[in-house]
Amino acid sequence: MTGVSSAAIATARFGGKDEMERGMTLSLRDSVDLLSDPKNLDASVEEVFKLMLGVDCRRYPGPGPAPEPESVTAVVGFGGLLSGACVFHCGGSTAKKLAARMTGMVFDEIDETVQDGIGEICNMLAGSWKGRVPDLAANCGLSIPTVITGRDYNLHVQAPEFQLHHLYKFEDAGFEVTIICDGLQ
Amino acid sequence: MSEVRTLIVDDSSVMRKIVARALLQAGLDPMVVFEAGNGSEGVELLKTQQVDLILSDINMPLMDGLEFLRQIRAQNLASGVPVVMITTESSEEHVKEAILAGAQGYIRKPFTPDQVKERVLPLIHAA
């Protein structure tokens, strides 16, 4: 691993006192089917890519994109009624392509602007996904994105309550989005 | 339209560029853009610069967008200047909280340039 930016993943922001108290009386246990519905994640990815990057993006069954020497992973944490994370992962060439789409600039390397762009995509995906479940939208906060770049690293998650892991493609570029739920109230 | 002095507060430099581009596409041209990476930077900037429009994210490090709004109202900075929140937090509760803190508009990320135009231009014309 060569770099980590914006290392503020530990605790996601979770509204004020009233929101916290309201959250205490709610439960998402009855919404597990809705939360784990793969269509919600697909719709979020399609919406973010269409509106912010102007590209059509579709889920595909795999195999995943060919490994690249360098890759980028962005993580946005969930806190509140649901704890977990939204993880966006892609190769370096895809990251540069996405940042170019967002800014209109050309990137030769994975610099701070590329990392920032990937973090923002992950942030919008996390917000869009949680916004599709009414009780979650108001009772789950998002952390500031953390972005990891480098070679030969793995992210390991210990026994989540549930996990969605999807592969997507736009043009000839592929990326992965994972929703990890490791706690549900 | 005369020059519109706009403050964009967002911890993402990429998002600040996207918002500025959307404002230009909406017709805010000529426009002078001031950028801040969090609410605290935004407050400091408003102590030295007069602006006509503020767009702010909510979820930011050091000082979030809601506290930024409360601070500028408490310190009587940017009095009468319209503030629009642009954020991934889009529940009814978050919108209410932003309006109570003094925001006049709310745009959910991801957004289209048309949404920016529809929600920002009327505020500029009314100010």
CATH fold topology of chain A: Chemotaxis protein chec
Tell me, what's the shape of chain B? globular
**In CATH, what is the class of chain B?**
Alpha Beta
Count helical runs of chain A: 6
Identify the biggest protein-protein contact and residues per side.
A-B, 31 and 26 residues
Strand neighbour order, sheet with most strands of chain B: 2-1-3-4-5
The number of distinct β-strands of chain B equals: 5
Strand content of chain B: 15-25%
Q: How does this model look, in words?
A:
The complex is a heterodimer of chains A (185) and B (127). Chain A contains 6 helices and 8 strands. Chain A is an alpha+beta fold. Chain A has a single domain, classed as 3-Layer(aba) Sandwich (Chemotaxis protein chec). In chain A, helix 3 crosses helix 5 (112-131) and helix 4 packs across helix 5 (112-131). Chain B has 127 residues and is α/β, with parallel strands linked by helices. Chain B has a single domain (4-126), classed as Response regulator (Rossmann fold), CATH 3.40.50.2300. Chain B has helices spanning 13-25, 39-46, 65-74, 92-101, 113-126, and strands at residues 4-9, 31-36, 53-56, 83-87, 105-108. A 5-stranded parallel beta sheet of chain B has the order 2-1-3-4-5, with helices on both faces. The longest helix of chain B is centred in the last third of the chain and has 14 residues, at 113-126. Chain B starts with a strand and ends with a helix. The model of chain B has no long low-confidence stretch (mean pLDDT 93). Chains A and B meet through helix 3, helix 4 and helix 5 of A and helix 1 and helix 4 of B.
